[in-house]
Specification:
- The protein is an alpha+beta fold and about 325 residues long.
- It folds into two domains: about 170 residues, Gcn5-related N-acetyltransferase (GNAT) (Aminopeptidase, 3-Layer(aba) Sandwich), CATH 3.40.630; about 140 residues, Aminopeptidase, CATH 3.40.630.
- Helix content is about 30%, strand content about 30%.
- It has eleven helices and 16 strands.
- Strands 1, 2, 3, 4, 5, 6, 9 and 16 form an eight-stranded mixed beta sheet that branches. Strands 7, 8, 10, 11, 12, 13, 14 and 15 form an eight-stranded mixed beta sheet that branches.
- A hairpin with a 2-residue loop joins strand 11 and strand 12.
- The protein starts with a strand and ends in a 14-residue tail after the last helix.
């Protein structure tokens, strides 16, 4: 048995017809295919994303998606291997093929100098625990919109030309954290592509808002207004400094409008402090799991395991 890369076009014809019921969601099969190809053909996809299969001769036994990210951890840069869409056809399950594929991939990652591997589990976290992965903080927050400040602020919609300013705002906010995933221009392009595709978003209207400061952006929120859930589903927010952090409450209230609630993943440390007390619960899906692969990876994992005020990642980092 061997690991081989699966060309994007071959993946869409050999794997996607089998996984559509699980992961296509509300998309048509045609949209599911076209969006998968768009990610593979994007700038990020060409450099940092692959579809991988375990083969016995020419027979595909099981498959997965492989992502690469970098993390800022104090003065260090850690290499991270992301794992997604692990799938074995029903008739081949129970034979250990997926475990073998992941074990081989992790061995290669150690040899290639990666510091940790991570994934988001929707089902059977125990399967990944048996391979050495451990669960990190994965929580959701819900608060009533009317508990947020109703301070009058000038709010505008995020325009396509604003993304560079959003990136600078994000970078300034991230300085308040001791670590976090790095976002290069290719990563931002990938996030924007996924946002346009609405892969992880519920039905509703994409509502990204900003507060401007001169030619820059003081604060922003990314998310979806969902009448179905009577909530603004928050993906991410950022602010340029602590004074601008006070704008997040009224900005979220503006995003919610006449909707009753704001909900989403619990924001990371620093960002969480800008919100009032709210209902916090463990997520039942997209449970973050990680496996250290190096000494520096173990140092990061020890710190991430103790995360209390906020979660480890933004939902925009979901793969």
């Amino acid at each position: 048995m061997r690991l081989n890369e699966i060309a994007a076009e071959d993946y869409t014809s050999s794997v996607l017809p089998l996984t559509a019921e699980l992961w296509a969601g509300r998309r048509t099969f045609e949209s599911y295919v076209s969006q998968t190809l768009a990610i593979a053909r994007s700038g990020y996809g060409r450099r940092y994303y692959r579809t991988i299969g375990l083969y016995d001769d020419k027979k595909l036994l099981t498959s997965m998606k492989r992502y690469e990210r970098s993390m800022r951890f104090g003065p260090m840069r850690l290499r991270a291997l992301g794992v997604g869409a692990v799938f074995t056809p029903p008739e081949l399950r129970g034979r250990g093929y997926a475990s073998a594929m992941l074990a081989m991939m992790l061995d290669h990652a150690r040899d290639e100098g990666y510091d940790f591997a991570y994934l988001f589990s929707d089902i059977r976290p125990r399967f990944y625990e048996d391979l050495g992965f451990a669960t990190l903080a994965s929580r959701a927050i819900t608060l009533r919109a009317d508990t947020l400040s109703n301070q009058r602020i000038q709010v505008t919609r995020l325009e396509e030309s604003d993304w560079n300013a959003v990136r600078r705002c994000f970078d300034l906010c991230e300085r308040m954290r001791s670590w976090g995933f790095l976002r290069t221009p290719l990563i931002w392009d990938w996030i924007q592509l996924r946002m346009r595709q609405r892969v992880d978003s519920p039905a509703g209207a994409l509502t990204n808002l900003v507060v401007r400061r001169g030619r820059g952006i003081a604060a922003y929120v990314l998310g979806t207004r969902s009448a179905e859930h009577d909530a603004y589903i928050l993906d991410e927010f950022g602010f340029a400094d602590r004074e601008a952090g006070e704008l997040i409450g009224p900005l979220l209230r503006s995003a919610a409008g006449d909707l009753r609630r704001i909900t989403g993943w619990l924001p990371p440390e620093g960002a969480r402090d800008t919100l009032p007390k709210a209902s916090v619960r463990k997520r039942r899906d997209a449970v973050l799991m990680a496996l250290p692969l190096s000494a520096n990876g173990r140092k990061w994992f020890a710190l991430a395991s103790q995360q209390r005020p906020g979660d480890v990642l933004w939902s925009t980092d979901h793969i």
